[in-house]
Design a protein that fits this description.
The protein is mainly alpha-helical. The chain has helices spanning 14-20, 23-26, 30-46, 52-70, 83-95, 97-100, 108-144, 164-188, 208-214, 224-229, 232-258, 286-309, 323-347, 352-359, 366-375, 380-397, 406-412, 419-423, 426-431, 441-459, and strands at 149-154, 157-163, 191-192, 219-220, 266-267, 349-350. The protein is 62% helix and 5% strand. The strands form three sheets. A two-stranded antiparallel ribbon has the order 1-2. It has a two-stranded parallel ribbon with strand order 3-4.
Length: 461
């Protein structure tokens, strides 16, 4: 007989039982379920709703079940549908009547809400820690390559000179925002739904502040209907995961390009590459490609939960059982991708000579040439047009702005002088970009310092 079977005259059909059961995936919440039950039982005893002796018996029984689960001595049953009913059934089998008192003043609706929230809450610091380690890798690569000039791109066309250190700090800022998004998500989910009951609270004198305190929440949720029907915390979490994976995917795409023979800006370590079954020369960036591919999987988790929730009236509906698999899969995917991606970056070899060689082509100092003329009094739009003519001349003659003669420059404008060559050197072009956020050496070091402080501040918590 099901724990909820009093109303029914027939056993659940086996097809329905299999269809309805969630134990195959929600079993991973056993720690949270047992912790929530211990807090609930403790509060019931303190409030005099059950006896202190029964509370002690229940708490001891739950701790024994936890030890047995972690020792591999418990096999959960699909007949008991979910982790909540499996734990309660085990407790009742061991304690008898005392075990049956545990569910006083509680519903599976608020029980699953608190378990799920606690599970996500526990995973966020793990992901943040992984991202902080990734940030440290980016800092290390940026410090090593603060002066490694490379072309920056727009439209995948060479645009203006930057440095590899500057590039690493661009991604460091993306991941910094990801960390703060997870922190914000953690702050907003810091409310305990336990005690909301099925949807309307309880007639028992529950102390919801006490269970919130016992479970490490700052306060109980404020509305019982919202408490059991809310999955915003999970949607927000999946949104943060999706944005993170988007950043990883963009970075992966750059890594894939950079380690190709067409770019050869970096070499990936053999330990983070794979080969071909037929082409012996191949060294494939499979880690980056898999991260790029798994991004769609996390996006799918977000869309799944948004779609599940979009048409559900208050309060709990069975549709909401579909909330966990997508979240669990996103957690598993993110926690798989971030560490291996960080290790891949940490072990890669940067090729500054190839970056510099690429930076000498594509006229990436053309804007600097226009700025040179503007600083000497020519209106920028006129300077822009004149440099466009210079570029056309270079293309026609097979030259670059660096290899033009002074006579060729003066042939287009007498404003040009000997100092044009220094002004257009890549070292000058990068070094003069000292505005906040720019690629100049000292400015990149400042950016590195900001990320270092950000990481150290959180590592000390």
């Amino acid at each position: 007989m099901k724990l909820w079977g009093g109303r029914f005259d027939k056993e659940t059909d086996s097809l329905v039982n299999d269809f309805n059961s969630s134990i195959r995936f929600d079993a991973r919440m056993y720690r949270e379920d047992i912790a929530g039950s211990i807090a609930h039982a403790t509060m019931l005893g303190e409030q005099g709703i059950i006896s202190r002796e029964e509370t002690a018996s229940i708490v001891d029984g739950l701790r024994a079940i936890l030890a047995d689960v972690e020792a591999g001595k418990v096999e959960f049953s699909e007949d008991n549908e979910d982790i909540h009913m499996n734990v309660e059934t085990l407790l009742t089998q061991r304690l008898g009547a005392a075990g049956k008192r545990l569910h006083t003043g509680r519903s599976r609706n608020d029980q699953v809400a608190v378990d799920f929230r606690m599970y996500v809450r526990a995973e966020i610091p793990k992901i943040i820690d992984m991202l902080l380690k990734l940030e440290s890798v980016l800092v290390k690569q940026a410090e090593r390559n603060a002066d490694a000039v490379m072309p920056g791109y727009t439209h995948l066309q060479r645009a203006q000179p930057v440095t590899f250190g500057h590039y690493m700090m661009a991604y460091a800022n993306m991941f910094k925002r990801d960390i703060t998004r997870f922190e914000d998500c953690l702050e907003r989910m810091d409310e305990c739904p336990l005690g909301a009951g099925a949807l309307a609270g309880s007639t028992h004198p529950l102390n919801r502040n006490r269970t919130a305190e016992l479970l490490g929440f700052s306060k109980p949720t404020d509305n019982s209907l919202d408490s059991v029907s809310d999955r915003d915390f999970a949607i927000e979490f999946l949104s943060a995961c999706s944005i993170l994976m988007m950043h990883l995917s963009r970075f992966s795409e750059e890594v894939i390009l950079w380690c190709s023979w067409e770019f050869k800006f970096i070499d990936l370590d053999d330990a983070y590459s794979t080969g071909s079954s037929i082409m012996p020369q191949k060294k494939n960036p499979d880690v980056a490609e898999l991260v790029r591919g798994k991004t769609g999987r996390v996006y799918g988790s977000l869309i799944t939960l948004l779609t599940v929730m979009k048409g559900i009236p208050l309060a709990y509906n069975k549709d909401m059982q579909e909330d966990k698999e997508c979240v669990f899969d996103a957690i598993d995917t993110v926690e798989l991708c971030v560490p291996v991606f960080a290790a891949m970056l940490d072990t890669m070899t940067v090729r500054p000579e190839n970056m510099y060689r690429a930076a000498t082509g594509g006229f990436i100092n053309a804007t600097d040439c226009a700025d040179y003329l503007a600083k000497k009094g020519m209106p920028f739009r006129d300077a822009y047009t004149l440099v466009g003519r210079l570029v056309n001349h270079c293309i026609a003659t097979g030259k670059t702005l660096d290899t033009l003669t002074l006579e060729e420059y003066k042939g287009l404008s007498p404003i040009f002088d000997e100092d044009v060559f220094d002004a257009l050197s890549l070292k000058t072009c990068v070094g003069q970009r000292k505005t906040i956020g720019g690629p100049a050496h000292d400015e990149v070091l400042r950016q590195i310092g900001v990320i270092k402080s950000f990481v150290e501040e959180r590592a000390g918590k």
